[in-house]
Amino acid sequence: MLHQLSAAGSRPVESTTIRVASVPSAHVYVRHLSPPRVAGDGVRRLPDPAVRRDATQSGWWPPEMLQASWVREHDDEFDVFHVHFGFDARTPAELTELVATLREHRKPLVLTVHDLRNPHHLAPDEHDAQLDVLVPAAQRLITLTPGAAAQIERRWGRRAVVVPHPHIVDLDRMEQLQCSRRDGGGPLRIGLHLKSLRASMDPWAVVPALVRAVGELDDAVLQVDAHREILCPGGTRYDERLADLLRSYDDSIDLRVHDFFDDEQLWAYLSSLDVSVLPYRFGTHSGWLEACRDVGTSVVAPTCGYYGEQGPVETYVLDEDHFDEASLVAAVHRAAAAPPVVPTVAERERQRHEVALAHRSLYESLVA
After folding, report:
1. Which of 61, 138, 312, 314 could form a disulfide with 331 if both were Cys (CB 3.0 to 4.6 A apart)?
2. CA 305 → CA 72, 205, 280, 302, 308, distances in Å?
3. Residue among 195, 201, 280 at smallest CA distance from 229
4. What is the CATH number of domain 171-337?
5. Are strands 3-5 and 12-14 parallel, antiparallel or unpaired?
6. Are 112 and 82 spatial neighbours (Cβ–Cβ below 8 Å)?
7. Regarding beta strands 275-277 and 188-193, do their DSSP bridges make them parallel or antiparallel, or are they unpaired?
8. Which CATH superfamily is domain 3-167+348-367 in?
9. Per residue in 47-77, pLDDT tens?
10. Domain coordinates in residue numbering, the chain
């Protein structure tokens, strides 16, 4: 429990617990908004409601809390309503009803703007319409970088508090992985993970440039990973054009096709790389980038979005209108030549305490 000085300033008094309906609460980003290695900070985030029985997806998706009916039924259980992810599951009309219901029940809305452009949508229109409901309605806005905050102010005339992205990998596991980093033996490993081919990814531009970049390095390997569903015939999202492209390079690529990594497999994969390349034509922020930093892997990121403001990365020119192959080749060469800038476990732990305090203070300002 946090303590505050009393009005006389002489003795501490216990602060009340602030109950937050966090959408979601189980996401790793949200879990790391609480301070590490301590009992708590006076903030209690409600557990995610189970999805409806007719939902086809598991976990917290689609978020039940983002319904006006949920607010009406549970309004006595929370003090602050904080939206992070999942509102792409609701229409602008549904979100309008949600914010009206929150206002009716006198529940303050906080929105963390992670994405100014949804990486899963080919066109921005739907996400823009959802943000046009939530951003003006929120009593407080948070975002992760100054560039995103400036864009929010230009677009909506609203000021967002900038709170940096906390670590992704658990602190104890981070320490183990940083201590066991590759010692320089074997070839330099440049990684590109296409996952299930998000709409924001452009492997057709990036892969040929990476083959060239790695081919110009001494003793280096280009490892390309992807999920079976996009590269195996019969997969639910099979992309024949992409499969043909990747297989056309034969031994120039170490191609690995597999199912989704669980967390431990993902951390092991990232720590096996020297450099991870983000192939995004659009986007805003990246948890993948933060996980790479946690395990000591260098990142090459595009100029779209605000990846370069999250932490030290090498950048290349790629957005919806431009791609500069030479800039990607040069960025890979720079990343290969320089040691990664790795935040220590102590630095990440200190940052997380600061992130937790920033959120607690913001909630206090709303419920005071």
Report:
1. 314
2. 37, 18, 9, 8, 8
3. 195
4. 3.40.50.2000
5. antiparallel
6. yes
7. parallel
8. Glycogen Phosphorylase B; (3.40.50.2000)
9. 999 876 544 455 677 899 999 999 999 999 9
10. 3-167+348-367, 171-337
